[in-house]
Write a structure and sequence with these properties.
The protein has about 350 residues and is an alpha+beta fold. The chain has 2 domains: about 230 residues, Rossmann fold (3-Layer(aba) Sandwich); about 110 residues, OB fold (Dihydrolipoamide Acetyltransferase, E2P). The chain has a 6-stranded mixed beta sheet with strand order 6-7-8-3-9-10, with helices on both faces. The longest helix has 18 residues. The protein is elongated and about 75 Å long. The protein starts with 5 loop residues before the first strand and ends with a strand. The chain binds adenosine-5'-diphosphate and magnesium ion. The site of magnesium ion has 2 residues, from α1.
Amino acid sequence: MRGARVVVEGLTKRYGEVTALADIDLEIEAGSYVVILGPSGSGKTTLLSILGGFAHPTSGRVLVDGRDVTFDPPARRPTTTVFQDYALFPHMNVGRNVGFGLAMRKVPREERRRRVAEVLALVGLEGAEGRDVATLSGGQRQRVALARALVVEPPVLLLDEPLGALDLKLRRQMQDELSRIQRTTGTTFVHVTHDQEEAMALADAVVVLSHGRIEDHGPPERVYLRPSSRFAAGFMGDSNLIEGRVVEGPDGSVVETALGAVPWGSAAPDSRVVVSIRPEHLRLDGSGALGLGRAEVRERHFAGVYQRCFVRVGDLELLVFAPPTMRISPGDVVPLSVDPTDVAVLPQD
Ligand code: ADP
Ligand code: MG
């Protein structure tokens, strides 16, 4: 099976006074894994429902491989949805749950049996056809829901918080499996979540949504390292956000902040800006090319792969992830530094 390309143009959805989606434009490449990331109420489910045909937009349209499907019913469009609660049929065994879509499409029994077996193997439930769904664990139900959606070989699979009901460890394990399954099938996956780690682990492209608007859209590395907005910087992981002002100097523009001047080569987004520095990029051993003054360590918490520290520089309190082996204690005064390439400068709003 091959994934389809999805294009959304000028999509707006209003529920009375509430604007759930505000003029969204989005292009999703065929065969890519796209994650829609945003807090509760940001419009994720609304967007997915419109892609799947369960809701109609107030204005705008949805194209799949160039075809306008905006008002096509769910069964007549090249999408399949995996709902948050899985919605398995409790009175049917695993095989009949998974084969349901094929039976509806009048696929002959032998082919049905073969395709159900194949897709169960794909999701790691080989031979589970005869199991009663009531006896399955949460992770197994999740796999059955996924198998039931994949068996009809949809060009586009829509997943609404598919791992939300699973505990953290199983969640991380299922993420690896989803990624493998997506690569195996080549289906376009559109996956909604509020979990930024999940987004980074899975996505070819992340779409950051807030109040029905796209705040950022791009490969997770880029969105993480160079977020386009203050919201995206704060939602895609922890960040130190420091207000500043762009000033033209003799060697190009710099941003003046409470930490001193930060060089800024690119065109300034505005004169009033926010400097974003990730906690793992702040250094307490003087090894960064740009010195930011002396910092007093206020708190230190061991977190396994790093030490989570709060340091104070002047009036600023900053979060720093220091290497786990670094010897550091509250009360220490250390040189704070960063590499200029690890600094992002964003518009202030
Ligand atoms: P998310 O999935 O990101 O949590 P939703 O898409 O469910 O967000 O909701 C976006 C906004 O639209 C919220 O303010 C929500 O209250 C509102 N909304 C969603 N569905 C409806 C509806 N059927 N009727 C009225 N308001 C709705
Ligand atoms: Mg939702």
